[in-house]
């Protein structure tokens, strides 16, 4: 479902004389439907960079990143938007929302965009918010003033509301209490059971051991010259 082939990544530091920094080379990795792969490696090794390339925010210097039938490394912005709408989900660490949009609408939005009737989308959003213990009195408010953990749970609710066949998870259990962490781990297990291919970064080792089928150390994708 997700196939990364011979991907390289350079950063051009425009404010430092245009220095080109190669941070990754020959990265290859395949994630099958129903499989969860954890990215590990030291800080700065390139875990977030690889995730951002799969998501389409960072452009690969070369190689292919197939998500379903789309090569994210080559796709134009409209194709990437389409991919994100139906096929590729992303739970980032931080919630980014339009101010003044109520929480229930924030969570229902991915379904509404796909054409789900509003009553059904809102009912599913409500069920998800309930599951993640967001009190009903908060559903009509914008999540911008919520606590860090509440915002993270709104983000998770939004990320899991549509059963995307491919999913990226960036520290999905960070800053959650035990009960909510358990809900998130169950959501991940359910996504795997329905056949989602998942790529994640988990600093929570117990969570990683429970949901990941295998781990890949991105140190193996370091440029050869730098590694020598
Ligand atoms: N936008 C950017 N511009 C320039 N260099 C960048 C940029 N993003 C990442 N890098 C560099 O790429 C390398 C990999 O960074 P990345 O954030 O992917 O590491 P990481 O493994 O996710 O680290 P951490 O565990 O600390 O989050 C680092 O050397 C970093 O400085």
Automatic annotation (TrEMBL):
GO molecular function: ATP binding; ATP hydrolysis activity; lyase activity
PROSITE patterns for this protein: ABC_TRANSPORTER_1, ABC_TRANSPORTER_2
InterPro entries associated with the record: AAA+_ATPase, ABC_transporter-like_ATP-bd, ABC_transporter-like_CS, CP_lyase_PhnL, P-loop_NTPase
UniProt keyword ATP-binding, yes or no: yes
Pfam families xref list: ABC_tran
Keywords: ATP-binding, Lyase, Nucleotide-binding
Positions of the ABC transporter domain: 2-228
Record-stated family: Belongs to the ABC transporter superfamily.
Protein name, entry field: Phosphonate C-P lyase system protein PhnL
Source species: Paracoccus suum
Superkingdom: Bacteria
């Amino acid at each position: 479902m997700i196939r990364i082939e011979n991907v390289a990544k350079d950063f051009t530091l425009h404010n430092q004389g245009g220095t080109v920094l190669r941070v990754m080379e020959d990265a290859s990795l395949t994630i099958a439907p129903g499989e969860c792969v954890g990215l590990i490696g030291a800080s700065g090794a390139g875990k977030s960079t690889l995730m951002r390339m799969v998501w389409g925010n960072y452009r690969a210097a070369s190689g292919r990143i197939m998500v379903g039938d789309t090569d994210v490394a080559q796709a134009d912005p409209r194709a990437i938007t389409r991919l994100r709408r139906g096929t590729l989900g992303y739970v980032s660490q931080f919630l980014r929302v339009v101010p003044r949009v109520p929480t229930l609408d924030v969570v229902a939005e991915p379904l509404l965009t796909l054409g789900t009737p509003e009553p059904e989308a809102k009912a599913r959003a409500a069920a998800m918010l309930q599951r993640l213990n967001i009190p009903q009195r908060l559903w009509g408010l914008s999540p911008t003033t919520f606590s860090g953990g509440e915002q993270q749970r709104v983000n998770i609710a939004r990320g899991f509301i549509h059963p995307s066949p491919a999913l990226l998870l960036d520290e999905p259990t960070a800053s959650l209490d035990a009960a909510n962490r358990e809900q998130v781990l169950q959501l991940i297990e359910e996504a795997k059971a329905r056949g989602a291919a998942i790529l994640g970064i988990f600093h929570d080792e117990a969570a990683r051991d429970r949901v990941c089928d295998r781990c890949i150390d991105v140190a193996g994708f370091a440029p050869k010259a730098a590694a020598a």
